[in-house]
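Give me structure tokens for this 461-residue protein.
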Amino acid sequence: MKADEHSTNELIAELRTLLGERLTTSRAACEQHGRGESLHPPRAPDAVVFPESTAEVSEIVSRCARYRMPVIAFGAGTSLEGHVAALRGGICVDLTGMDQVLEAHAEDMDVTVQAGVLRTQLNSYLRDTGLFFSVDPGADATLGGMAATNASGTNTVRYGTMRDNVLALTAVLADGRIIHTGGRARKSAAGYDLTSLLVGSEGTLGIITELTVRLHGHTEAVTAAVCAFPDIAAAVQASIQVIQMGVPVARIELLDEVQMRAVNRYAGLDYREAPTLFFEFHGSNASAHEDAANVGAIVHDFAGEDFRWASDESERRQLWQARHNAYYAALAQFPGAKGIISDACVPISRLAECITETKADLDAAAVHACILGHVGDGNFHVIFCVDPADTAAIKTAEELNERLVARALAMGGTCTGEHGIGYGKMDFLAREHTDAIEVMRTLKRALDPHNLLNPGKMVAV
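Here you go.
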């Protein structure tokens, strides 16, 4: 149970003595830190603190533990399933001030950073090394937040998710203890894999303060292409064929005709407004062009048209910026709308079936929605654009989202490929993992017996 008002005020006074102006109880700041990017109802914390080191995070959490005060970690605030809502009040720990690159080892292709480093910031730092950090969710998120939600993105089909790219972590546990997990070696058989346990735990088992991540080398050539299709089934089947043929693509992204229309209007582009695949190929000049030619032949077999190249860097940046802005492009078509974003992932062999059935549901419903996804790894999203005051539209979107999740689970998939659970998908998680949920609860109780770290998220305890 959370501390009473008197104890809350005592704790805030203690933390103010420790942090000075790096603590705020202003209403605006607290409300900002209680919401993400989704329509899930926000909940403000009692105070927000801005630590600058792991030691300070440890001291903050230790004091909160003594007062039985909830602690919620906060990064860029771009989460989509209510991860940062302070459901039981408490102290929000904003890690954005911990934004230092601590150690870079170009020869070993890894780097250690504080949790508040942004992904674009890290890649700017690495610009002259010939290396880059590969995980690229649409938002410019912090690496700590990306690790906490096991983020992925458009590069996942080639380079993997955060769990594939995090080598080591420093984390603060619920009682304030600092632990270090993993190491810089590329493999280890030493003990439980606590790094992988903390990655994707959404701040419910520990607060990640530092992490060591893999880097990848820039290839000699990068080639991109865009191709339109007569219908969404043909586009998905083409992407599946590309993967099954073993073509080493770096990115395959799908946007349906509704999303393409929104992107064109938002970014001032002139792509055909039809189901479209975005491709990118990395390698030598010869291999990248050969891979692109092979894909061109495959998409031709599925009636792909308007195969457009973007080998110039500025063209490619424009293309992928348009893709990353897809969410905001969709919302811009309906001023005042908010987004409800689904996130399902299925085995690649069931992807076409899952998407076409979902598309049929959307076409039959009276809601504004579009489909986009990382089809190279079986992950796709539906963006529902709804008026926050239109309860009927929200209910319809939620029902369609539930149908999508049920469909994905029946096909051997998952309720979330990358957005995570937060409090928005807790029921879906229980449905997916059934008896394994109790094991998750056991882990939560063991590491956080008083349920202080981001309570009300992931699993109910």
